[in-house]
Specification:
With about 290 residues, the protein is mostly helical. The protein has 13 helices and no strands.
Length: about 290
């Protein structure tokens, strides 16, 4: 599974690496090579009992590939893959807004909103706004990723006493580890109930199951604050964020107060996980740093 995901990610990077720049073309060729080589290596190493070290190596390669990909954002030219992803996002947003308006019309008519309509309107809207909620972007906006990079660069280049350089390196690695854990939380939250029930994870890990609802509540508040702040800068993004913030808040209130929504409460981890994956897709295709 991990090798298939890694291969798909590098194929995505190769498709997005458009333009005549030599470094972009080199990265495209390397991405295609890795997309082919990683699944083949997985077929050889995983049956031989080397699955765990191979999985760790795949994560390191993916992280390095993501770093290089983002570093080439100003050298790439928007190609077919970029335009296709953008059209898909706009299609999801239009469909989500249409379903959200239908749900609002249902309420105005005094009729109970069908559960599938409420769920899919939120799901599509959250996917369309995932580029504003992607954990990598939030890490950059909070300054955590930049602070980690500054500490590591300072430790490597500083002429200070070795103890201070080591302290800066440790601080930078700790911040980097925090960013990686943040990026992994949606996957960990989706896996936690099954792994704890199977006895593979400690019982305390079941607390990770609280993350999806907390993530939706926090991002709803974040989108609302961001919409109010950016209303005079980018009205389109502000209105997008405001619509999703309101939809998310209403859905969460119903999910935890209306017994009929209990079945959809179990879908929260999957919703957050898919949203994170789609945010990664939109973030990878972004033409901005």
């Amino acid at each position: 599974m991990a090798t298939a995901v890694a291969g798909s990610v590098f194929l995505l990077y190769a498709a997005l690496a458009s333009g005549p720049d030599v470094r972009v073309r080199t990265f495209r060729a390397l991405s295609i090579l890795l997309a082919i080589a990683l699944p083949i290596l997985g077929l050889r190493l995983i049956p031989a009992g080397e699955g765990r070290p191979f999985g760790g190596g795949v994560l390191v390669v993916l992280f390095a590939g993501a770093f290089v990909h983002r570093g080439q954002v100003l050298r790439r030219r928007p190609g077919m893959a970029f335009r296709t992803i953008r059209r898909v996002r706009w299609g999801l947003e239009a469909a989500g807004l249409l379903l959200f308006l239908l749900a609002g019309l249902w309420l105005l008519l005094g009729r109970p909103v069908p559960l599938p309509l409420a769920f899919w309107s939120l799901f599509l809207l959250r996917l369309s706004i995932a580029d504003l909620l992607y954990a990598g972007r939030l890490a950059r906006e909070t300054g955590l990723a930049g602070s980690a990079a500054t500490d590591l660069k300072s430790a490597a280049r500083s002429r200070a006493h070795p103890s201070r350089r080591v302290a800066r390196a440790v601080r930078g690695l700790a911040k980097l580890a925090l960013v990686l854990v943040w990026l992994a939380l949606p996957l960990l939250a989706a896996l936690a109930p099954r792994e704890v029930a199977g006895g593979d994870w400690p019982r305390a890990a079941i607390l990770l199951a609280l993350y999806p609802a907390a993530a939706l509540a926090i991002t709803s508040a974040l989108l609302l604050l961001r919409a109010l702040r950016d209303l005079h800068k980018s009205r389109r993004d502000a209105m997008r964020g405001l619509a999703v913030a309101v939809a998310t808040a209403l859905w969460l209130v119903r999910a935890f107060t209306d017994p009929s929504f209990a079945a959809y409460r179990g879908a929260l981890p999957g919703l957050v996980l898919v949203e994170t994956a789609f945010g990664f897709l939109l973030g990878a295709a972004s033409a901005r740093r």
